[in-house]
Task: structure prediction
Amino acid sequence: MAGVVGGLATAAAKMPGRWGNAVVEVLLLQKRDFDNVLKASIMKTWEEIREAMAGFHYFEHWGEVALRETCILAKISHFKTGDTILGDGHGQPNMAYFLIRGRARLIQHLLLVPKVSSTGLVKYRCLPPGTTTFPAGTQTHFMQVAVFSKGECFGIGRHTSGPRPSGCSGEDMQDRRVVAATPVSALLVPRYVLQQRGHGNLWARIRRFLNSRFPSQDALLKHFLNGRDWAKYRRDLVMHLLQGRPPLADTTVHDVPLSLRTRDWIPLEKHSCYELGRLPDPRASRWRAAREERAAVERRVAAAKREQRAELAFKARERAAQRGVKFA
Result:
């Protein structure tokens, strides 16, 4: 079946083969129309992918033909902060992800079953991945396994769905997901393209490196228990130190000596509720008496100084009169 719509021809046919009969739809476009409509946008996309591939040393030794074919099959995806890039039914498990921009976290959740021993000690047992039945009291905890940044990759290996062997984590996304910590841009390349052009068993070595760097489920459980014990010890230590201290006294600004209060200005917002007038201050009368007493002392000192100056001026006049000097 074929038809022409707006100058574009579409065709659909049944293609028998070893995979059975499959319906294939093909968009037929004349080269002149392709050059006028699609070539500019497609070339721009290919240039962006080519530029992104140039930032990874994995593709340095690829030939021109391999790079061009990869530009046709690869794509660039963008993710917002908090988006799940891969795992939990998100993402494309047949693609390898190369981070162009941003940071992402590899998060794994642990299913823990607490058990109290006869001595009162709580022990935790970790359920294997893929468990469908959960005992009573099962707890779910999320642990950050790794942080991916610009220039790193993940999703290189096969994403198995069954339980993984003990000590094998790596590229297995069972109970794991990659979440964007910041806005992320990633280059997605089909994994079969990488396998076809993996010189020197490159991608297998990368998978082994990831397996050696990512902790296993047992290591995560041990890290979780150590962190829990440290948090409990820190909380108990702080409470012990606080309980050993005497209760705080009801100290206000009125307990500061008057000489210091008149010399150093104390902001009103730091005064007590008595100073702000919210409650009647039982020591307000004492404070006013002290202020009045200081004012009286200052007045007496000023009067004494005036008398002393007058006496000095009188004596000066007498000495001048004896010498025959007249004052105006």
Q: What stands out?
A: The longest strand covers residues 104-116. The mean pLDDT is 77. The chain is about 40% helix and 25% strand. Residues 174 and 234 are 34 Å apart (CA to CA).
